[in-house]
Fold:
Amino acid sequence: MVTSQQVCPFLLSLDSPEATLARAGGKGASLARLKAAGLPVPPGFHIATDAYDRFVEANHLVDGILSAASQAQAGDPATPAASAVLDRASEQIQTLIAQGTMPADMEEMIRQRYADLGPDVPVAVRSSATAEDLPDMSFAGQLETYLNIRGGDDVIGAVKRCWASLWTARAIGYRLRQGIPPQEVSIAVVVQQLVAAQSAGVLFTVNPVTGARDELIVNAAWGLGEAIVSGRVTPDTMVIDKKTGVIRSQQIARKEVMTVRHESEGVSGTREEPVPDSMQQQAALQPVQATELGRLAVKIEQLYGQPMDIEWAMCDGQIYILQARPVTALPPPRVVLDWSVPRKGARYFRTSVAEILPEPLSPLFETLALPLWDRATQKVMAESKLLRPGEFSLLTIHGYAFYEMALTTSQTVRMLLNLALHARPLVAMLRKAREQWADGTRPRYANVAAEWAGRDLAAKPTVDLLAGAQQIVEAAASYYVSIQMVLAVANLSEAIFNGVYNHLIKRKNDLAALTFLLGFDSAPIRAEKSLYDLAQWASLNDELAEYLADISGKDFAAAYQAQSAPISGRDIWTEFSVRLAEHLNQFGHAVYNLDFAESVPAEAPALLLETLKYFVSGKGNNPGERQAEAAAVRERAAASLLARLRGPRLRLFKRVLDWAQRSAPMREDALADVGLGWPVLRRMLREVGRRMVACGAIAEPDDVFWLQGEELQAAARLLDAGQPLPDNQLAIAERRAAQQAKHGATPPSMLPVKGGSRILGFEFGSMMPARVDQAAGSTFKGIGASPGRVTGPACVLHGPEEFERMKPGDILVASITTPAWTPLFAMASGIVTNVGGPLSHSSIVAREYGVPAVLGTGVATQRIHSGQHITVDGDAGIVTLCD
Structure:
């Protein structure tokens, strides 16, 4: 008989200094560290990796495991075929482990150590791999944990199942993607007394959304924490000041289910049960308990010296720490920016082009493109005779684009007089706007881009490539400035039509003015119809449809770019790739962000995948049918009014209706082509980057966007002369870090912050695309840009790299949307933005889709977090936080 007092090489006390990563795995090593530091960790013990290794050797499993694992190593996890290989390998290995016999002395020692915890005490049996819970590799959720295990037999069975979970298909695939060889991984097991938690949850010692290091974020729900981890319940959320322990904000969710342990004797495991009605909207954690939990969390962060993700549970008022791991994905800390004006007396505005430059500019765009945009803007201002050189310019503050207007009172009066004196030429410019755009700047822009797209870029001297890049940017700037007139005509015609209709024509039961402007074709709608047609074609092939339904965006992009068929139907995949390429060639130049350092859809087909999946599944509405229905309603409404009206009102209605209907579709077509030259421009600049990488001047081709224009020109001359280049990698790293610190800020729409929106006694703040005066609370206001009311889960997206997080029925929350965001509108049940107005892209497309939208809130991406339920009232322009 083995006693618990005997020395056992593979069983370690929970706080043992020998519970290292190699012997206790990531989870076990962390628990040992916490226990040794005196933190309230439930009692238990480690079954070290030595035990697993001995079990494998005693049952002669090494060769079988490595053989099966090597089969998976040969496959590409991006393909369905490789997924099947992973499944087969996993099944083979787990069968080997299940059939193996644990050495008798080992089994007896585990049983005795378990008995030392108490007679048939409920325990949690947790896997702890040697490649788990590391600072750069969380591995979370890949291995198994078994809760409420009671009795020696069940503990032994759970230990073997934990060992087997080292070889699940997802664990094998994860290690394959991380480059971890199968022979280098092992597993320990932690056996701990189960906390009969009345409430439990997770805590981050840093805000994982904003990166704020002075905040603790606590999630709490009733019962065991598994319901939160698995996503089956929306938890309460608390934001706690890390320094003072004061609760800054608290959102109480409706918690309808909870995970509890089986109470019946002889029954292991857990079950879900409904939360009593009286508790569903009660806080699962009281303020005093939250403060104590915060104190423990700060101690844990100090122990590890870095932000931590902590699992906790509470029983009878006692808080227990169940696990702590480093936070592996964290935005940089957000800096507080000083928005004082650079020029006293001047006014600064984030409108027009600044609206589609939502983030700090890349150094190359700021020094190459922005001056050309400013030059094109100055030229138009001079032609209009409104402003003189130096009175209006385009610049950056903290890297964000702003327009500067530096006018004294007398200069402002002069400008207003010029506006009156030169009204006729301005009207003439507006009348010619469509012609100048359609027959002038657009074809010139398209021709410059097409000319360079047809050249062999690799054969061109570097100086010529930069000269060509400047030609494209100059054409783009001229194009953008010219479409301001197009946008002005479209906006003015809609505003006048709305005014005439609402005040002179509309009766009580007549349809809204919006009805008469829907159902027209535009570039974003044509792009949606093209993607829908592609999805309908793909859905006809079961294998292709199944592949698209299961694949991740990253793996989809890899398969598409590799031009190798990931399905057995090679011809089908080839045809699909050709059709997708045709779609991207036609619509792939729409920009997410005007800064050419950001990719465009033509380069990133994975960004279309979620919408493509949605259409392939058959859930999406046919956009052609939706458009036809809106057009039919529009025509019937117009015909009814034309038949009813007489005399001057009829003539006025026909005139303003015709003007608005001819002008409105121009707006989206004009905006959609702003990035017409960006695909070839990015190829040109990346070709320069490739040459600089070959010379050791930068680390990767995209680093070229982190150089300034003058630096790039100097590098081009040296490259063409065959001379060595300076190493720019340190400067690039510093610039990346500086920009990242400012990334995600919400710059004011107008500066100075106080009084900047008031000019000559007039308040211009309401005309800006983002509010600056939001009060604290669970509601905030914006512009009701598309009617309707909807409540649903929010999906906060900070850029296209997060598109795959969007799910059908989500309410899309973003800083701003551009035409390239349109595919997401097919899945969205509502739209909320920081920036935008009733005539912005978000508004126009949301109305075409019949989706409620509140725009220009200024704070949406800061106040709302993904998964939170919100109500969007597009009629009142109000957003309400429900959770």
